[in-house]
Recover the amino acids of this structure.
């Protein structure tokens, strides 16, 4: 299949180009498009055959439901049975933005989209191009992240092209994803609401609106296989680069010392190794491929860069990536959730 790539400039969403892309989705095709979290791979959420193509293009397990994207609040009402007041308050505070709500679905959402579940995840993204596209299409867009299943989610158009060229009808974009990690997912079919996947809207932010909100215990007992996460996708090996990732957890000076020791051992054995560092520590690593995720004082930059850096290490052909850790609170919880999965919970605690 020929994949058409269309670049849109920020602040100038050309109408005729957008119409052409919307037509692709209306005709049952697949379009990868940018959102503020990560790029998504979209299809008409009401069209089973189109949605089926998403699963095939990504190599996605059939039991992993998709998130449905809307462009304005009114568009949610036909899609769900009811909106509990807790969900409504969270929507009023955080939409449009990087947060998805799980609600009981109406019959217009096919089981193909919800992967057989009676519930559906809905998100109103803030990215202007995403919003304009959904609006132009005129139907909600079902979209998982636009990566091949198991790989880190794409946060720029080139990573999308790398994964999906030849597999989808069209890839659009231009600007990089501002957030860089997938949306926070909140299950609002239960009371109080439960966070199934941490993201840029943190549990601390959610609790300011819904004080009883809690995090799916399976996320906090992560290495323990007895806890089954409630979001089907959270159980899969995920965000994984080709290289093996090892996380070093501990006081920062000791972490640097330990990483240098491990790197030296690998180099002595003739193995190419990468170090995922931060602005505060990068000059303390003298050997190996060193890339900083950003400053520890600005976790949003760490989140924005994480998936891109994991993919860059694969480009460099390192066999191991040794990473520093971050405190698992506030936004650090989402960052460590992705990093822990990339590492398959291969963690050395000092
Ligand atoms: O930021 C995002 O959410 C991006 C952009 C494109 O919007 N999308 C995204 O989709 O990350 P995906 O498919 O890669 O991840 C969706 C996650 C999966 O872990 C899935 O299991 C969970 O959401 N999920 C979707 N519907 C669900 C439901 N009804 N109940 C529980 N979990 C659900
Ligand atoms: Mg994904």
């Amino acid at each position: 299949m020929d994949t058409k790539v269309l670049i849109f400039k920020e602040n100038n969403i050309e109408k005729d180009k957008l119409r052409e892309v919307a037509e692709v989705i209306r005709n049952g095709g697949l379009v990868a498009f940018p959102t503020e979290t990560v790029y998504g791979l979209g299809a008409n959420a009401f069209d089973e055959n189109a949605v089926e193509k998403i699963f095939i293009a990504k190599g996605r397990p059939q039991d992993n439901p998709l998130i449905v994207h809307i462009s304005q609040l009114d568009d949610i009402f036909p899609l769900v049975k009811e909106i509990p007041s807790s969900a409504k308050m969270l929507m009023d505070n955080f939409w449009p933005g990087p947060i998805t709500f799980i609600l009981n679905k109406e019959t217009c959402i096919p089981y193909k989209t919800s992967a057989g579940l009676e519930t559906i995840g809905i998100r109103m993204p803030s990215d202007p191009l995403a919003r304009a596209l959904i609006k132009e299409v005129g139907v909600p867009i079902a979209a998982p992240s636009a990566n091949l299943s198991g790989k880190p989610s794409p946060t720029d158009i080139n990573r999308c092209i790398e994964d999906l060229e030849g597999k989808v009808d069209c890839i659009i974009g231009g600007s990089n994803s501002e957030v860089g990690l997938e949306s926070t997912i909140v299950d609002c079919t239960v009371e109080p609401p439960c966070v199934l996947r941490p993201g840029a809207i943190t549990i601390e932010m959610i609790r300011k609106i819904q004080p009883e909100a809690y995090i799916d215990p399976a996320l906090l007992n992560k290495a323990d296989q007895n806890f089954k996460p409630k979001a089907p996708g959270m159980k899969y090996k995920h965000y994984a680069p080709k290289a093996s990732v090892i996380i070093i957890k501990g006081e920062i000076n000791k972490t640097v010392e330990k990483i240098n020791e491990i790197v030296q051992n690998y180099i002595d054995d003739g193995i190419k190794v990468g170090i995922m560092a931060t602005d505060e520590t990068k000059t303390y690593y003298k050997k190996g491929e060193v890339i900083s995720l950003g400053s520890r004082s600005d976790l949003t930059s760490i989140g924005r860069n994480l998936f891109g850096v994991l993919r860059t290490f694969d480009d460099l052909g390192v066999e191991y990536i040794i990473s520093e850790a971050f405190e698992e609170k506030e936004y650090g919880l989402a960052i460590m959730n992705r990093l822990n999965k990339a590492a398959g919970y291969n963690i050395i605690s000092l």
Remarks:
- The longest strand covers residues 99-104.
- The chain has a mean pLDDT of 95.
